[in-house]
Design brief:
This protein has a 4-stranded antiparallel beta sheet with strand order 2-3-1-4, sandwiched between helices. It is α+β, with helices and mostly antiparallel strands and 184 residues long. Helices cover 38% and strands 15% of the residues.
Length: 184
């Protein structure tokens, strides 16, 4: 497998995109968004994950982040995806979800090509990781992350989208703490 877009080093920051299979809009419900926030908080507290910027969109997540304390980013992302896959399926089964049957069937069908036995596949294989190489690249990616909900016309201003670090940078309350970068 290619390592072009893999985060295989330690102590380097990355711009990462993680996408659901078929770009399914899984994160339209608060319970699913909170599952992602909780998993990211766990990674911050237990897996050396430093998050500088993030957004949770309906079918994907963008992160500007780094693994620290000897953790390798690829391992952190692997564990994050494995845990959140199970949590997303559990939430679909246990909590009200009008799209339950359709989503579960799609996640099951996404396993058909896999060699290993797996019942559901929530995330696309791999993740898109770009190593951070300059302050201008950081600024560009943070602006891209924060403007995703604006571009999709979910909100008018980046800081109005609750599941984004744009709120942190604007000094507003947010459930997920990030390390603020002073590049602006």
């Amino acid at each position: 497998m290619s390592t072009k877009y893999k985060a295989i080093t330690t102590e380097e920051a990355y711009f990462i995109t993680i996408t659901t299979v078929g770009w399914i809009d899984v994160f339209t419900r608060l319970n699913q968004k909170h599952a992602i926030i909780n998993a990211l908080q766990y990674c911050q507290q237990n897996k050396g994950l430093e998050i500088y910027a993030y957004v949770i969109m309906s079918s994907h997540i963008h992160l500007l982040c780094k693994a620290t304390n000897g953790f390798v980013m690829s391992d952190v992302i692997r564990d994050f995806k494995k845990f959140t896959s199970k949590k997303i399926i559990q939430t679909c089964v246990d909590e009200p979800e009008s799209r339950r049957e359709w989503m579960l069937a799609y996640f099951q069908k996404a396993c058909n090509h896999l060699k290993r036995e797996q019942h559901y596949k929530v995330w696309q294989d791999g993740y898109h990781a770009e190593i951070i190489y300059s302050n201008s690249f950081i600024k560009q990616k943070i602006e891209y992350i924060h403007n995703n909900p604006v571009k999709d016309k979910i909100v008018s201003l980046p800081e109005d989208y609750y599941f984004s670090s744009a709120r942190n940078y604007a000094g507003l309350v947010n459930d997920l703490e990030v390390i603020l970068l002073n590049l602006f």
